[in-house]
Structure formats: C-alpha cells, structure tokens
Amino acid sequence: MTRIPFSEHQISSYTRFLIRSVISLVVLLIVVTINLPAQKSIPSTDVPANVVENFKKEYASATNVQWFRPKKEKGYAASCQLNGKKTQLRLDEQGNTLKKVTHLQPNELPAPVTQSVQSNFKDYQLKRGTEIQHMKKKQTFYRVRLVKGQKKAEVRLIFIGPDGKILTDTDQRIEPEDKDDDGDQK
Fold this sequence. Notes:
CATH class of the largest domain: Alpha Beta
Number of domains: 2
Shape: globular
Number of strands: 8
Order of helices and strands: HHEEEEHEEEE
Largest sheet: 8 strands, antiparallel
Structural class: alpha+beta
Radius of gyration: 20 Å
Low-confidence stretches: 175-186
Distance between the termini: 58 Å
CATH topology of the largest domain: Nuclear Transport Factor 2, Chain: A
Strand order of the largest sheet: 1-2-3-4-5-6-7-8
Strand content: 25-35%
C-alpha cells in the first residue's frame, strides 16, 4: 500500500484553500461582469430607436446617459444617473431591462443587509453598497464593500440577499495609497 506523503490535516487545509480560491475567483468574475467594461461609449444614434424609446419610457428621470455595446453579450448597456444614483443597466435588443446595478451609500442599504454586516463583521467599516437586480430571474442582492485597517487594509466584498443572508464572502488586501476610498484607481 502506497502512503500519501501528506497528513490528513494538510489535505484538509489544502481542500479548504482550493474551495476558498474557487469561491474568490467566482466572486471576482461576478464583480467584473457586473461593472461595465472599460470601453468607449457609443452615440445614442447608434442604438436602435426601440431600445432608446423603451429606455426613456422606463427611466424617464435618467440623466447623463452613456450607451455601450457589450463585447460578449447581445443587447446594450447604459450608464446613467437615476434618482440621484449612479446606475448601470443591461438591456436586450428590444430594450427590455435584463440587469440593473445601482450604487448606494451605506445608509441607503436595506435594514436586514446592514444588520447582517454589523453582526457578522464587527471589526469592519461599511464603505459602500450596490444593489444588483436580475429582472428575468426576479432576483435582487447586494454587494457591500467592507474595510478593516488603514495601512494594509483588508477589504471584503460580501454578497448579501435582501433578507440579510450572506451569499458569498471574499477578502483581499489592497494598499490604500494605490486606491481611493471607493477602491478605484487614483
């Protein structure tokens, strides 16, 4: 019988490491697909009239609208100010909203989300939140950014359901001098 050169504890630790790595990768992919890719906006005249008309009917109060054509998805994306909040929308080729991402201040998050953060992450400061709505799936969840520490800040991106249930949790380290308070490059 061949003996494995690892202890049971080492295998268990390695398995936990692999699972955590896969979860972190999945969360990273979700975060990347949620945010509009860095690409040039297109003029509204390049967006089909029915898409623009449906957008204007649904989001009449939208201002500062910029249109994008996602490279890997059909349809269109719009970035705008909606009810005073930065919002990104994914629309199909008929102008129906597929996904809506709204950036929120911490005090604008629903109470169950805030309470979940306060009870599960006591050592962290809630920096910002994002409401993500998938229209076809009729799903809403929240992504919150938590920060602990100053010099080598520990940052966690947590996905939480509207009921306060934690869906995914990832942590990463960033240097505060490399990023501003919202995590964007300076």
